[in-house]
Design a protein that fits this description.
The structure is a homodimer of 300-residue chains. The first copy, chain A, is mostly helical and 300 residues long. Chain A has 15 helices and two strands.
């Protein structure tokens, strides 16, 4: 897949995803208007839609376009979880960020109480969305998707990683394994789950699910390494926030441990593991391959 | 069921529930220690376990003791959601309560960031617990339980009611229908869901699920009316907080609209609807009957 083909693919997938996300928080009514507004502000105000795109591309690797469609609801559930986590992370008691993607963060736009509640609602309703994945996906697979999302987002995954990150702040020396452990929970778990739920929705056989799990883990690690590199060089445009913020806050980063060149080389090595894992899917895996290459290249 | 028999029933059920709740947040490991401590503090520090007891009693009404056991995991999932909601409601940006059940609330004991994250983890992991209800409950029923919990706790249920409650604060006149609407979301939805998930786990037929839904709605309404009455008379011992706090904060209450005697009479009328709904279950419904009577009597 050329860079141009990937662009077209991403544009088409994002359009499907954003239409479905809007339905996820508005369909059927019965929600207070202010809550829906805040949920839509958090969920639909830009963002790369990387997690649901990964879910769709993973479904496609397993079973082509029809399988890709089955991954849409699980992918949207994960994006709702991602959006809630950003809203709660930005709160004054957490990272205290008033800006997100170049505009006021949720609590700055509304107020803290609304931001807490809109986050809680996105998190809760994400499971309603995951559990109402269409009946073309078997009931046991739909349950596996719910469990996968809960495990990756909860105390043993994303929330656990977030707490570890807070506890590590301000420590002077942080080992590479501690950095990896934090990011595996905080960012990696949900990216891995994005790939896995797409595969599960598509009805992947065990061996294929194993291959895609390896890919998802590699993807998560490359994502975090390159995120740290970008934070360091201060790509204000793509991150929408000032440079070096994480390191200045005393947070563990890959460049802080490996240096900039070392971090970039590590990203390429890990990406190779991901590419190899999806070789058996041939051209059906082209979108996954393109997504990973895209993430590697953003830091080069 | 005599008052003494009900006491014995509650003691036995609470013991089962608390053992299972502890397993829900510790089994398998992999969670940061501080997070587990905070989750256990929020989840296991007292409380009447009303919601999981309702789930168990509802399962029992449908199919006796074996069915009651199947309702344990869904009931515990709902208790985890209840515990997260208290932790988030107590936050400075929300109700700003430093005390809960006669001891420091979660953020007062730890800090705000930990309270937000422990709440998020309890909410997320609740769905993992619900989805891993044992295989004696069919996969479609387990999915229905996940959807039931998400719908009752999310934007159209508890979180929506909480936001409406905040928006109504400080208004001088609040109609009875507005009061009912707020409480139906904020408290009623999760109590109704407690009864329904117990019934679904027990494999209730449609007509029985309908009867138990009516009971659950009546229970939720009686609970809220008597909660408001207790708040007004200031039963410091049973609520663990000062008297008249809700009314003083400008919140809509039943006694504020109906007067104290009017609120008590309304609670008895609604309870009668609940008793009638479960008559067809005979002695199997005795625990549900006793629980409702217990709630009515606390305000008389």
């Amino acid at each position: 897949m050329t860079a141009k083909e990937l662009d077209g693919y991403l544009t088409a997938r994002r359009r499907e995803i954003e239409a479905e996300l809007d339905r996820c928080v508005t369909a059927g009514g019965g929600r207070p208007r202010r809550l829906v507004q805040a949920m839509r502000y958090a969920l639909l105000g830009g963002g790369k839609r990387l997690r649901p795109v990964l879910a769709l591309a993973s479904g496609q690797a397993v079973g082509g376009a029809p399988a890709r469609k089955r991954a849409l609801r699980p992918g949207c559930a994960i994006e709702m979880i991602h959006a809630y986590s950003l809203a709660h992370d930005d709160l004054p008691a957490m990272d205290d960020d008033d800006m997100r993607r170049g505009r006021p963060s949720l609590h700055a736009k509304y107020d803290e109480a609304t931001a807490i509640l809109a986050g809680d609602a996105l998190l809760t309703d994400a499971f309603g969305v995951a559990a109402s994945t269409g009946r073309t996906v078997g009931a046991e697979s739909r349950l596996a998707i719910v469990r996968e999302i809960a495990a990756s987002a909860g105390a043993r995954g994303m929330v656990g990683g977030q707490l570890k990150d807070i506890l590590a702040e301000g420590k002077k020396r942080v080992s590479l394994s501690a950095v990896q452990d934090i990011h595996r929970g905080k960012t990696g778990a949900l990216l891995r789950a994005s790939v896995r739920v797409g595969a599960i929705a598509a009805g992947a056989a065990k061996a294929d699910l194993r291959r895609l799990t390896t890919f998802g883990e590699a993807f998560g690690l490359v994502f975090q390494i390159t995120d740290d590199v970008l934070d360091e060089v201060g790509d204000l445009k793509s991150l929408g926030k000032p440079a070096g913020g994480d390191r200045a806050a005393g947070k563990a980063t890959y460049p802080g441990v490996l240096g900039m060149d070392g971090a970039r080389a590590q990203a390429r090595r890990v990406a190779d593991v991901g590419y190899r894992a999806i070789e058996p899917f041939g051209t059906r895996g082209a979108a996954l391959h393109g997504l990973l290459r895209h993430v590697v290249e953003r830091a080069s």
